[in-house]
């Protein structure tokens, strides 16, 4: 019986009644050998942009990145086919560069010959010559009709994927998303690895500046609350509670207004600018919900004494995320809402003010002398 079934399957494939699955490495559609592609708006340099590594979503933002907008507009004006789909989306769909604002869906109907031809031309142009044009644009990968091609693994060719049958999905690197690539600028930039996670279990803090070095060490959460994390796109009573505290319309939906309000609050209280209702944000926004704190330095005087004893031989500067910063923020007399363990603008202003009063250089760096100055000021 087994031998008969094998023979039947072979006959069906040979007759075309049962399609053979596409092999890994094969494109999802027939690609033209000499694609037209996209016209570059600048003179391209001889040097080629570094191939983007796979940089998955780490942040959550409803903003369409400028490089993605440029690519979308050029594709639509060049081919005039299909429909411009979405770029940024909610953060409720799992890991997706759409949630970073650096992915775009070009809606092209595979049943329409002209649209399918346009998609084939674009994909052929992007992937040709080991992804030369993908590197120019900062494209990480493209997906179409259940096949994916990545510039970070060109030897694998087109690999099996899922879905994306009615559109071409394009995910860009951070350089590509920001528009810092030779296709737009005529200059090659070093790899931008994107924003950094500052507290474990939270989103990365969005930044307008490229990152070419390693991220600082991730800090464990310094406070935990009874409230669950919420991000752009979520709904429910927990979101409504935050909206009441933030004084924005209580829609129960984590919308644009709520995202902007969360970001404003985080900037005002030295919390990494994730835009999400994470544990550091809840601990500041709703102190009554805090169930545990890793750092409890006590009174201002106690914090100063602890700092002298434990941090006199080290240096604390802007950008640090640690228990030491909570102790510093307490020693400076910052409000409870600002004692989050992240040294940013609020803490920097307080440190410089203290240094000025003590007749010290206002560089914002805390050393043994700063701890002693804080002690002297309390006596």
Protein described:
The protein is of the alpha+beta class and 379 residues long. It has 3 domains: 29-185, no CATH class; 223-293, Muramoyl-pentapeptide Carboxypeptidase, domain 1; 300-378, PGBD-like superfamily/PGBD (Muramoyl-pentapeptide Carboxypeptidase, domain 1, Orthogonal Bundle). The protein has helices at 2-15, 66-79, 113-137, 174-178, 182-185, 237-246, 256-268, 279-285, 300-311, 323-331, 345-357, 368-378; strands at 83-84, 103-107, 139-144, 147-150, 159-160, 167-172, 223-225, 290-293. The strands form 2 sheets. Strands 1-2-6-3-4-5 form a 6-stranded antiparallel sheet. A two-stranded antiparallel sheet has the order 7-8. A hairpin with an 8-residue loop joins strand 4 and strand 5. Helix 9 runs antiparallel to helix 12 (368-378). It is elongated, with a radius of gyration of 26 Å. Residues 1-23 have low confidence and may be disordered.
Query: What is the percent of helical residues?
Result: 25-40%
What is the structural class?
Answer: alpha+beta
Q: Total helix count?
A: 12
Tell me how many strands there are.
8
The main sheet orders its strands as 1-2-6-3-4-5
Low-confidence stretches: 1-23
Structural Rg: 26 Å
Biggest beta sheet summary: 6 strands, antiparallel
The percentage of residues in β strands lies in 5-15%
> What shape does the CA trace take?
elongated
N-to-C SSE series?
HHEEHEEEEHHEHHHEHHHH
